[in-house]
């Protein structure tokens, strides 16, 4: 039997940042990790240990102080170290391969909740017909309790409403890789369970998913967890 290749491989990744005075601050030392299609991996650690910083490295927004982050799409069409990707490959990684949910859930304030969630359907790579993709986005928003807010401008959404839109947006392109930073942080338990169920469905469809979270509901559902920092 052939083992399934990882989508993402971290090799001695040193998470941290460079300060304006030229110094460096290391948050996570030498992290090794592999993420495979079909699994949900938790990222645990106390507040301030560097989970969001790591997630930003994985999203290609910043590069680690040391080590390698290799992405390989299941079909091999995109393969390489994030730090070595040229602009075109990095843009493709973010646009076509990655579903990213950040803590701030930035939306386009002038657009409706539905148009924000469907932004990739309007302008990006969606398998199948755009109409079916839009129906799926609408159904997922309804499922997460936003049926009455589809037409509301994003600027008028609450934090929890915006978070749900950002989650649907990240999943709408059926990405090979999902990295989510506290995706249930603003949600009540019932809605959080729906979000977790949605993530599980995407994993079952073949996505590899990494979730940084302090939420016990998320902790109870992952396939395995990686802990960073001290207990
Ligand atoms: N570019 C930067 N400049 C200055 N400080 C930074 C920078 N990036 C991260 N930090 C600091 O590094 C620490 C780790 O931040 P990070 O957001 O990664 O932690 P976290 O584990 O995600 O925390 P939480 O669980 O509270 O979200 C924090 O003290 C943060 O202020």
Automatic annotation (TrEMBL):
<dbReference type="InterPro" id="IPR027417">
    <property type="entry name" value="P-loop_NTPase"/>
</dbReference>
<dbReference type="GO" id="GO:0005524">
    <property type="term" value="F:ATP binding"/>
</dbReference>
<keyword id="KW-0547">Nucleotide-binding</keyword>
<protein>
    <submittedName>
        <fullName>ATP-binding cassette domain-containing protein</fullName>
    </submittedName>
</protein>
<dbReference type="InterPro" id="IPR015854">
    <property type="entry name" value="ABC_transpr_LolD-like"/>
</dbReference>
<dbReference type="InterPro" id="IPR017871">
    <property type="entry name" value="ABC_transporter-like_CS"/>
</dbReference>
<dbReference type="Pfam" id="PF00005">
    <property type="entry name" value="ABC_tran"/>
</dbReference>
<dbReference type="GO" id="GO:0016887">
    <property type="term" value="F:ATP hydrolysis activity"/>
</dbReference>
<dbReference type="GO" id="GO:0022857">
    <property type="term" value="F:transmembrane transporter activity"/>
</dbReference>
<dbReference type="InterPro" id="IPR003593">
    <property type="entry name" value="AAA+_ATPase"/>
</dbReference>
<feature type="domain" description="ABC transporter">
    <location>
        <begin position="10"/>
        <end position="230"/>
    </location>
</feature>
<keyword id="KW-0067">ATP-binding</keyword>
<keyword id="KW-0449">Lipoprotein</keyword>
<dbReference type="GO" id="GO:0005886">
    <property type="term" value="C:plasma membrane"/>
</dbReference>
<dbReference type="InterPro" id="IPR003439">
    <property type="entry name" value="ABC_transporter-like_ATP-bd"/>
</dbReference>
């Amino acid at each position: 039997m052939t083992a399934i290749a990882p989508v993402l491989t971290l090799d001695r990744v040193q998470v941290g940042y460079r300060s304006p005075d030229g110094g460096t601050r290391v948050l996570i030392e030498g992290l090794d990790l592999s993420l495979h299609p079909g699994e949900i991996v938790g990222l645990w650690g106390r507040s301030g240990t560097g989970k969001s910083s790591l997630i930003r490295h994985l999203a290609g927004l910043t590069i680690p102080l040391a080590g390698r982050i290799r992405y390989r799409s299941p079909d091999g069409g995109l393969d390489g170290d994030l730090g070595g990707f040229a602009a075109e490959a990095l843009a493709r990684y973010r646009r076509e391969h990655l579903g990213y949910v950040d803590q701030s859930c930035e939306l386009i304030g002038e657009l409706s909740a539905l148009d924000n969630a469907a932004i990739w359907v309007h302008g990006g790579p969606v398998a199948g017909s755009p109409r079916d993709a839009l129906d799926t986005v609408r159904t997922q928003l309804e499922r997460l309790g936003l049926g009455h807010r589809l037409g509301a401008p994003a600027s008028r959404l609450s934090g929890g409403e915006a978070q749900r839109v950002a989650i649907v947006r990240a999943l709408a392109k059926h990405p090979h890789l999902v990295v989510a930073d506290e995706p249930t942080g603003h949600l009540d338990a019932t809605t959080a369970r729906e979000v977790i169920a949605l993530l599980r469905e995407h994993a079952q469809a073949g996505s590899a998913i990494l979730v940084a979270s302090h939420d016990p509901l998320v902790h109870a559902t992952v396939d395995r967890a990686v802990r960073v920092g001290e207990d």
